[in-house]
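The following record pairs a protein chain with its ligand, manganese (II) ion.
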Amino acid sequence: MLTAHQTPAIALTTKSSRDIETDLLIFPVFEGDTLTDEADLDGASGGEVASARTRGELKGTAFDLFFTSVRGWKASRVALVGVGSRKDLSPDRLRRAATAGALAARQRCLTNIAIVHRPGTDVTAQEAAQVLTEGVILANFDGASYRTTDPPRVWLDTVQLRVGGEPAAVERAVERGRVLGECTNLSRTLSNEPSNALTPRVFAERATAIATDAGLTLEILDETRIAELKMGLLLGVARGSQEPPRVVVLRHEPKKAAGIGSARGPTSPVLGLVGKGITFDAGGISIKPAENMDKMKDDMSGGAAVLCAMAAISRLQAPVRCVAVIPMTENMPGGRALKPGDVLTSAEGKTVEVLNTDAEGRLVLGDAVWYARQLGATHLVDVATLTGACAVALGKTTTGLFGTPDSWVEQVRRASERAGDRSWQLPVFDDYKELFKSEIADFGNTGGRAGGAITGALFIKEFTGDLPWVHMDIAGTAWAEDAKPYQPKGATGVGVRTLAELALDVEAWAKL
Ligand code: BES
Ligand code: MN
Ligand code: ZN
């Protein structure tokens, strides 16, 4: 298997544009941009830049690319990447522009690039350093890990960034961007793995390696331990498969945790992260149609996001205690599989009538969320490729957010905005609960087509013990069906940076 991603060497520079030695020097360019802060550029390009602007080829429209050679500069060539209007420049726009520029460089076999942060915008030097770093690392990903016939792949080797600002702070921001970019790529690599390579046992082994590397405490619960804990919902889903289930538990114990030693004493918050780790979802006896079933290898993307976010949280020494629970199993239609109408008893004791075995995510999450509470979580976030209905509601670019109280949902939403993971809240009114009533048990596991994403969320809520809780439905966002200039097709790593940004939000944790 080939490696799916590499991290280039990233260095800061203060050199003038003409003195930066590189294969490709990248400038963001705004709409109506006269490039006055780069007055020499037009001359070096032999008037190409000005004439492209007059022709209308260079408009600054977001992610449009314009290439030119430059005479008398140390760079071999220059790329101008459109970023839209100057006043609307956001860290996220800049992150995407960096990815677009870096992907274009790789396509042209240019391995040493430099990116300049232009003055006169609301994006600070530190923000720019972080998101430009993230953006180029996200571009250095290639999912074709099992090809043997392709020509050797081109990776970015070195990246120079000129962002201004205070050197030590900017260096820290680069480090943060590097960890967040790497951990996102790690999550994409896992989601991309076929299910014959990444079984629940292998997923747990990969988690062990990643956790050890990042300095996290890890525990693997095997099928015996899972049975001792009476996790009937998880065991029910696992019944149809030859592969035994696993639960991976990770802990991050910072030396200086938020809340500890504060006026409220030892009642410090514990962030509980739970990720759906279905390594293949065939649907079980309620089997899925053949078309697109191959995509169900990525049904562990929530689990991968939680695992890789925990790695980032540990490497960046987030100030809050965290515990993560990742239930791992296949959902298969074997001879001993769960059947529609079967009743399961959860670890918490609540009973569930399984009306549709394809609604397996909420089952495994029910037991996992309960376990996160047993381990001391005070604030819950679960991440799951839970419902096709969420993708119908919000499309392929926006993650669904559900939860209570609204202040906690809003804290997660803001973290997702900083992370560049788009998300939007949907309601969890009690009124929807009657949709998944059962004639025989406490509740059923499905509620019909109407409000399908919401009933999925409300099912999980039954196991949260009324702790602050957010559910992120990434069914639409975990996998990109179409390539964009800033996002290749395939696994996106959605959720990794949101969860890490959430844990790194020092001010918010101090207030809780
Ligand atoms: N893993 C799927 C959800 C999914 C569907 C993710 C498409 C990505 C793309 C989940 O386990 C599932 O099958 N959900 C069902 C729920 C239904 C049976 C209530 C669905 O969405 O159809
Ligand atoms: Mn399913
Ligand atoms: Zn599923």
